[in-house]
């Protein structure tokens, strides 16, 4: 499928997959595709950073390859590994069948049959549908040596496997990196990328997202939910709810057949939007009532 020809087309095509994209984000997505640059998305938890990679792959008809980062992730796990168990079985089988031809066996053991391709290598393989979307998710969870390795991998899109040689991507993948900013990612890596901070959506956009993700929710209740969550985010709490929590909460309220928010319903279901006991204790009761009043005072469209 063709790349979008304009920023508006990015917005409409992402919308057709259920992703509500603000114009500034659509602009960097458009530029990343047009210039072939990796896109670095930083922002609060649950604001749609991971989801945009999925939506983009879907709308472009490309494969999505995800590299989930974690502490201790190293280059070999991200690129390739040898299948030791299968290699051992092959050695045993060769031994059982008589004296093996050592050289041929060694060549076999370090050939494509025993290679386990990890996300970075998979993303460099040719694909008839076009270069895949490579999502490097939650980069802030890895350490600096891995970042340095990525910096190199992202600049030339080739990897060298000593036993097999160098593999180069025929067409660079579309790269999206995300971070929750639990630590700063190195400037050198950021410089390679187009950068965008994914903020909490405003009232209208969050309402739009909610209506897309939780269809069947009455308009008044949707407005109350979004109004309440937006008001909650202005409070001094430890962990503010993301869009994911808004959607979860709406689904809980739907399951409970709630048609109108009340302080009691809010107190009973706060666990869907707040995940820290201190925050829950702080908001429960009179605070919830006050925020609900604030939410009800949100302007209703004419
Ligand atoms: N703009 C949006 N349009 C549609 N759905 C959205 C949007 N933003 C968030 N969502 C919904 O919120 C959920 C959480 O989004 P996602 O997992 O992408 O957040 P994230 O920013 O990657 O969070 P985390 O930092 O916790 O990984 C998604 O499953 C999606 O349904
Ligand atoms: Mg994510």
Short structural description:
The protein is α/β, with parallel strands linked by helices and 302 residues long. The protein has helices at residues 7-15, 23-35, 49-60, 75-79, 84-96, 102-109, 119-122, 144-156, 187-192, 203-213, 219-233, 243-255, 263-269, 277-283, 286-296, and strands at 39-43, 64-68, 80-82, 115-117, 133-137, 158-161, 165-168, 174-179, 194-198. The radius of gyration is 24 Å and the shape is elongated.
Main beta sheet strand tally, sense and closure: 5 strands, parallel
* Annotation field: number of helices: 15
CATH topology of the largest domain: Rossmann fold
CATH superfamily of the largest domain: P-loop containing nucleotide triphosphate hydrolases
Number of individual domains: 3
Uncertain runs: none
**Helical residues, percent:** 40-55%
Distinct small molecules: adenosine-5'-triphosphate, magnesium ion
**What's the SSE pattern?**
HHEHEHEHHEHEHEEEHEHHHHHH
Distance between the termini: 40 Å
**Strand portion, in percent?**
5-15%
Which structural class do you get from the secondary structure elements? alpha/beta
- Cα radius of gyration in angstroms: 24 Å
Instruction: State the strand order across the main sheet.
Output: 2-5-8-1-9
Quantity of strands, as a count: 9
- Principal-axis shape equals elongated
Describe the protein in words.
This protein has 3 domains: 7-71 and 117-198, P-loop containing nucleotide triphosphate hydrolases (Rossmann fold, 3-Layer(aba) Sandwich), CATH 3.40.50; 80-113, no CATH class; 203-288. The protein contains 15 helices and 9 strands. The chain has helices at 7-15, 23-35, 49-60, 75-79, 84-96, 102-109, 119-122, 144-156, 187-192, 203-213, 219-233, 243-255, 263-269, 277-283, 286-296, and strands at 39-43, 64-68, 80-82, 115-117, 133-137, 158-161, 165-168, 174-179, 194-198. Strands 2-5-8-1-9 form a 5-stranded parallel sheet. Strands 3-4 form a two-stranded antiparallel ribbon. The longest helix is centred in the C-terminal third of the chain and has 15 residues, at 219-233. It binds adenosine-5'-triphosphate and magnesium ion.
